[in-house]
Amino acid sequence: MGGPPDGRYDALVIGGGIIGLVTAWRAALRGLRTALADPAPGGGAAWVAAGMLAAVTELHYGEQTLLGLNMASARRYPDFVAELEEASGQDVGHRACGTLAVAFDADDRAHLRELHTFQRGLGLESEWLTGRECRRLEPMLAPGVHGGLRVSGDNQVDPRRLTAALLTACERAGVAFHRARAERLLLDGDRATGIELAGGTRLTAERTVLAAGSLSGRLAGVPDDVLPPVRPVKGQVLRLSVPERYAPFLSRTVRAVVRGGPVYLVPRENGELVIGATSEELGWDTTVTAGGVYELLRDAHEVVPGITELPLVETCAGLRPGSPDNAPMLGPTALPGLLLATGHHRNGVLLTPITGDVMAEALTSGELPPEARPFTPRRFAAPAATPSPAQEQHP
Ligand code: GLY
C-alpha cells in the first residue's frame, strides 16, 4: 500500500495487537493520517488473553498508582464498547457479570482476607462472602471453598472479538495497513522519522509509536537510552466448551487462590470457558507444556470439579509485555518523534480504552494527559550522571 499524497504520515504505529490497533483507531478519529505496520495485525497477546477486566480482584501490593489507571480504564469500558461496536458493526462480548474470588484452604482464605482489607482501605467495592454464600451464587463450586470476595465491578470482554472489531474500525477510519515487519527505526539526526519494513519499503511519519508488545525492546535503530525495558512473560491458557445441557455452568468470572497459586475461570455467553494462566519467565518460549496444562486443570478442578466433564477445545500460550514495575509505558520518549505504548503486562485488555485516548492525545498535542503522566517511559531513563560525594569535596 502507498502512503499519503506527500509521502508522510502524521502517525505511524508499529504493532497490530490491541494496543497498536486502539492507538491507530483513536489517532485516525482525531483526523491524523495514520498507518500501522504489522505482518499479521490482530494477533499478539490478546489472542491468548482471557479478557478479565479485573482492576480490583487482580490488585497487587505496591501497584496503587497502576490501580488508578486501571480503574479509570474500567470506567471507560461501557462507552468504549458502545462506540467500537457502532464503528465496527461487531459485538465484542462485553459482559457485566462481576467476579467471585474464592479461597481453597485456610491459608488461601487468610490471603484473600488480607486482599479484602487492602481493597477496602483503598475504597474499592468488594464484599466478603462465606463459603456457603459463594456456592449459592455459583453452585458448581467445590464444597470445600472457604469463602471469597464478590466484586461486582470486575467484568469481562472477549479479546478476540475486541481485536477483530478494532481491525474493522481502523479500516473504516482510514488507517493504512502495511502488512510487513518493521525492521528498524529511521532517524534523522536526533529525531525519529519513520521505519524501514522488511523488504526495504520506508514509511515516514511525524510521530512513530512503538506498540509491539513483548517485541518492543527489539526494534533495530532505537537508541539504547530510549529502548523500552520490556520482557516476555509467558502465559498458558486453556479453552473449554460448556455444552448447552450444562448451562449456565458458571455465571460470573471465578478466580481462586489454590495453595498459594492463582487460577481463573472466565465463562462467556457463547459457551466458551477460559482457564488461565501460567506466568513464566522463559524468554521467547511459547510452548504449551504438559506441566502448564496439568497445573491449570488441577487448580481449576479443585475449585470447580465439574470442569472434567467439559470438552477441552484449545490450549495456547502468549507473551505478556512485562515492564520493570508492571505498568505500561505511554507517550513521548526522550527521542523526538518516538512514542511508546507498551509494557501493559497483565492489563493490556483492561487498559485498551484509556491507552487509545491518552496516545491519541499525545500524538495530537505532544503531551500526555494528567492521568497518564506517571506512566511516561522517561521514568526508566538512566539518571543524569551526578558527581559522587567524593568528587563534590573537590573545588
Ligand atoms: N490478567 C490476566 C493475566 O495476565 O493472566
UniProtKB/TrEMBL annotation:
Keywords per UniProt: Oxidoreductase, Thiamine biosynthesis
Spans annotated as Disordered: 367-395
Catalytic activity field: glycine + O2 + H2O = glyoxylate + H2O2 + NH4(+)
InterPro entries: FAD-dep_OxRdtase, FAD/NAD-bd_sf, Gly_oxidase_ThiO
One Gene Ontology cellular component annotation held by this UniProt entry: cytoplasm
Biased composition (Low complexity): 373-395
SUPFAM superfamilies: FAD-linked reductases, C-terminal domain, FAD/NAD(P)-binding domain
MF GO annotations: flavin adenine dinucleotide binding; glycine oxidase activity
Entry EC no(s): 1.4.3.19
A Pfam family assignment: DAO
This protein's pathway: Cofactor biosynthesis; thiamine diphosphate biosynthesis
Residue span, FAD dependent oxidoreductase domain: 10-361
GO biological process, one term: thiamine diphosphate biosynthetic process
Protein name in UniProt: glycine oxidase
Originating species: Streptomyces antimycoticus
